[in-house]
Amino acid sequence: MSLRYLSARLAQQIDDELTSAAGAFSLDQLMELAGLACAQTLAKVYDSAKFNRVLVCCGPGNQGGDGLVAARHLSMFGYKTTIYMPKPGTKEIYQRLHTQCKNLDIATLPADSESFRDALASSDVILDAIFGFSFKGPIRAPFDDALPLLSQSRLPIVSVDIPSGWDVEAGNEAGVGLNPDVLLSLTAPKEGVRSFRGRHFLGGRFVPKSMDEKFQLNLPAYPGYEQIVDITEATQKL
């Protein structure tokens, strides 16, 4: 059976169940596992010997938290990681994750566009963790300036869960979203990425078999100790 694509409502329902008394996961745990999967995806496709300088772009929500976790792991994998936060998150968990990065001497850019342009010119690959599956357009400041600059950089982009600017169900029909080379879907692919034709991975080795069966996700097996599985071939047949 083929992988199930998730609507916004179903994706939220699964997240809620994972963090419920029945699922028993904390938000910290899920962010840690998701961020590790993000870092592993980028490292698998973009070797640190050639693509050492990674610009991690984080939004203010849980997606940005995943990005901060990924930045920490990438730094420990040997990448030179820099964080860009057009609008930093205010939640306590976000602040703690950012402090963990600062403790590893991971630089955070000033929020001005000149610093961002300079960072793009001196980066090898971008991790896009700006908007998650709850994003609804239009794109507002300061992200309305950041996304075009990311696209214009022509750097390879790895997007987390759904490319920033894409609607979780309608995809990039507005034409304002990023067009990444690599996508890491978390838990299961979202409806809006059916048209994505780049390298596609799945991360979410935290989903129990009972939940997989309950929601008929038809998740593939993860190889060995990997936190990700390549679903490019499976998704491009659909």
From TrEMBL:
Its EC number is 5.1.99.6. It is found in: Cytoplasm; Mitochondrion. Keywords: Cytoplasm, Isomerase, Metal-binding, Mitochondrion, NAD, NADP, Nucleotide-binding, Potassium. Its cofactor is K(+). Residues 11-219 form the YjeF N-terminal domain. It comes from the Eukaryota. It catalyses: (6R)-NADHX = (6S)-NADHX; (6R)-NADPHX = (6S)-NADPHX. GO terms for molecular function: metal ion binding; NAD(P)HX epimerase activity; nucleotide binding. K(+) binds at residues 63, 128, 164. Binds 1 potassium ion per subunit. InterPro entries: YjeF_N_dom, YjeF_N_dom_sf, YJEFN_prot_NAXE-like. PROSITE patterns: YJEF_N. SUPFAM superfamilies: YjeF N-terminal domain-like. (6S)-NADPHX binds at residues 62-66, 132-138, 161. Its main location: cytoplasm. One of its GO terms (cellular component) is mitochondrion. Pfam families: YjeF_N. Catalyzes the epimerization of the S- and R-forms of NAD(P)HX, a damaged form of NAD(P)H that is a result of enzymatic or heat-dependent hydration. This is a prerequisite for the S-specific NAD(P)H-hydrate dehydratase to allow the repair of both epimers of NAD(P)HX. Belongs to the NnrE/AIBP family. This is NAD(P)H-hydrate epimerase. It comes from Roridomyces roridus. The lineage of its organism: Eukaryota, Fungi, Dikarya, Basidiomycota, Agaricomycotina.
